[in-house]
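TICKET #2291
ISSUE: user wants both folds in one file
ATTACHMENT 1:
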Amino acid sequence: MIINRYIIRTIHLGTFMALLALVGLGLFFLFVSELRNLGEGTYGLTQIIKFVVLSLPGKVVEFMPLAVLLGSIISLGALASNSEIIAMQASGVSLAKLISPVIQAAVILAVLSFLLADWVVPDSESYARSVKNLALEKTSALLVREGVWTKDESSVLHIGQLLPNGIARDIEIFELDEQGKILSALKAVRAIPLTEGWELHQVEKSIINDKEMMTVSYDQMLYEGKLSLRLLEVLMIEPRQMSSNDLRAYLNFLDENKLEGRVERMIFWQKMFAPLTIIVMCLLALPFVLGSQRQGDTGQRLLIGILLGLAFVVVEQLVIQLGTQFDGNALLIALLPNITFLGIAIYVLAKKQLLGSGRGLFFRRAQA
């Protein structure tokens, strides 16, 4: 339907413009704040620009809900100001038919945002943080796409991934002699930090000498290394930077080992409901533009959008903090802000529909 495509394109264009402004401001302030660390360690202008560029996908995901709200209010408000929405309704487009393309536009944006958050942001955010902190810490660690290489006394370690709380996955430890020759090679599926060293799990250790190589397997073993705790903190991935699959696997690991995971579980459900947030924001914009035909309403609509976006952030943070402290159901707590604002949107839309029906009945009686 031509009208549907027109509304979808209008919402996407408005969202893109709002996203461009919000992300641009966010990156500008990020760049300015990073200039305070300029010259510290090896953190130069090149590293700052690299850090800011790598932060771009994360900023897009962060600002997407607010951009959808503002973009929808502005773009749909422009249609209302030009009497295009009134013309659509006069030609037989009901409120339900008007909501349909709005939801379609929101779903497309929600899917794109989720894919970006799940496939791009985890790598870009982790790499950006590592680039910055490794430069500031002046470490000798070598960061690569598949993890990090570092030296610990006479051993060389490859750490595939550092999870929250210092838990590591896919560890390789190569023990060297004074001439740099490999004496043994050890592989472990995961490692749990202790007061001193790591507790390695599912270990295969290969002992190498001039005549043969012998491989021994262990369920668990202790690695008494002297890794820099500051280095591990620098390289450690945060739950919000993990993909949904990695976060789910990490939650399963916490459950299997009877470890606390309330915060991580809350973050997981926030990620799952992030697409719903975008749809709710788009629907929330619709009631505030219906029936408005004045060009001067643009500033008022923009103010309403900003206030609604701030209100959503405050409610979401408040509910999640309270839920985390009192150990509530993470799924319901993460869903509650969306349900609340969806209820507000439905209520205002229903009220607009009743007012529209009443006005139509009044005009029909006046004509009779």
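ATTACHMENT 2:
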Amino acid sequence: MSKYISEYIDFLKIEKRQSKNTLLSYRRDVNRFAKYLSNKQLDEVKKNDVRSFLVFLRNVECLASSSVARCLSSLKSFYSFLYIENLILENPTETIASPSPYRKLPNVISVEDVDALIAAPDIKTLAGVRDLAMIELIYATGLRVSELISLKVSEVDLEVGFLRTLGKGSKERVIPIGDIAKTAIEGYVNNARPLFQKKRKTEDLFLTRNGNAMSRQGFWKIIKKYSIKAKIAGTVSPHALRHAFATHLLDRGADLRSVQKMLGHADISSTQIYTHVLSERMSGIYKRFHPRA
């Protein structure tokens, strides 16, 4: 089956132009299924094999419902490809309904905690200037961490106050940058980045001490370090700042459609989860302060 998996991944990469992270996820899910099937041939796979695999993921591997749903989605895409290419006569995933996974409410850090996190970098150091610019930018724009570390210098227009980024599905979107974030990025670009860059020719905006592009893991460690320094309770991640961006905007009256566009959500239902966060917050305030609650 490995031959067909490779052809499928090539199809996603070339024809569908899926991102590197998406390709890795699809390959991992389909390989996991192939390993579960052991030596079973491609045309021998039946609907019950798929169902038993999903049960295995849930009960034996103890995956969350959302992860099981994602695996099924990967398999549906894989078998649709095989069927269209006439490599199989029957699609075993066709009539299997995708579960509606429980959507966990995002962990949203407060404005006060964001302020404490932003105050943590030592801007007397080159690393502190860079770290402040990254934190300010991700909170100002709601970028995914993969989008943040992939930014090129040419994609950020500080004069106009906008940036361009390629999100999921290689869809480009334009997001405004606030004045405070602009100032932080200007300080980094003018004073710190040239020293990180050294003699290397690179378009990557955020660089490490070695002049390489910042990695996901590297930025994760930066956030963790400063959250400890700021004494913020609980886990703070780059994605938590994306959640904070959306929630704090909605909390101050932004409309859902605008937030959806800035986050790069294809479906507004993905953005609507933040309204549940606000509802829970309002409910807590009501119970705390209303005399008859």
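RESOLUTION: both attachments delivered.
EXTRA DETAIL ON ATTACHMENT 2: The domain at 2-84 is CATH 1.10.150.130 (DNA polymerase; domain 1).
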